[in-house]
Every structure is written in C-alpha cells, then in structure tokens.
Amino acid sequence: MTAPRQPDHDAALMAKVVAGDESAFAMLYDRYSPMLFGMLMRILRDSQAAEEVLQDLFLQLWRKPGQFDVSRGSLPAWLMVIGRNRAISRLRGRSTQEVLEHTDGFYANTLASSQNIENEASRMQLLDTLKLAMARLPEEQRQAIELAYFEGMTQSEIAARTGSPLGTVKTRVRTGMQSLKQLLN
C-alpha cells in the first residue's frame, strides 16, 4: 500500500522552504496543521495550549528546516513525533489543577477545519490510508502506538496500563512504527 501523493510532494516543498519560499511553507502548514492540532488536542485537552505547541512546531520548521532529513522518514511522522514530545513535556510542566476536563468525543472533529475542499480531501485520504495501515498491525503493536501517539502516554505508562514489561512495550512501539513506515512507503 502506498500513501497518497500530495499535489506537491513534501520533499519538493521542503526544498522550497529551505530556500525561504513562504508559499511552500503555507502549503505544508495547511496540509498538516489540522492533523497535528487534532493530536495535540487529544494529548493536551486545551485548545490554547495546542495552538501554542502547533505554532512553536511550525516556527521551528520555518526557522530550521534543515533539521528535517527526508532520508530518515516522512515529514508528517517527524512533525507528529516532535509535536507529541512537546505536548507531553508541556503536560509534565502543568500542575494537575490546570488539566482541563474532557468529555469523550468533544474533540472528534478537530481534523475537519479546512475551508479548502481539495486540501481537506487530501487529508481525509491520508487519514484513511493511516487507518488502514494501523489496522494491518498486530493488536499489541497497534495498541502501543495508539497509546503513545494518540493518547500521549509514555512507554512506562503504557507498560503499567497494559501489564507488559517495559522492554516489550518499547519493542512493540519500535516494530510497529517500522511496519507503518513500510506500509506507508
């Protein structure tokens, strides 16, 4: 299975961003910000905090585009990992009183925020491809990845929740991510 090709491939857009092309940067922002914002909302459960982390993430991409290495993986995966890590760091810095209440399903529609139908269709196609790839993973790997990347849990927290040894959780996440990379390439 291959990931859907975007109108302008990410590598080509990143090359333009390195050269200072603001329109290429805007295209990447439009393409990936709704997906990233949805993930950040699931972790932080605070729209202002999610917006701040998202802004910091894209500011880093604009100021230091060379930090992303095309040969090491996909741009959305890189953005998701950095965004997740920043969100978790931000959560650890909060007091427990600042954590907002969240009702199930409240943030379910955060991905569908674009007014550009073509971009939205591309995002939905990418999301469908990711769902299909996730469904092809063994249950233990899928669960570990979902807990880590969509619920913002650390590997130690996943081990405690699932009752699995920490080394097993680490292997499941690493192997699952490698499998996803193969499925999406």
Helix and strand layout, with pairings?
Elements: H1 10-18, H2 22-44, H3 47-63, H4 75-93, H5 117-135, H6 139-150, H7 155-162, H8 166-184
Characterization of the model:
The chain is 68% helix and 0% strand. It has a domain at 7-95: Orthogonal Bundle (Rna Polymerase Sigma Factor, Chain: A). It has helices spanning 10-18, 22-44, 47-63, 75-93, 117-135, 139-150, 155-162, 166-184. The radius of gyration is 17 Å and the shape is globular. With 185 residues, it is mainly α. It starts with 9 loop residues before the first helix and ends with a helix. Mean pLDDT is 79; it is low at 1-8 and 95-115.
State the main characteristics.
disordered N terminus, Rna Polymerase Sigma Factor, Chain: A, 185 residues, mainly alpha, single chain, 8 helices
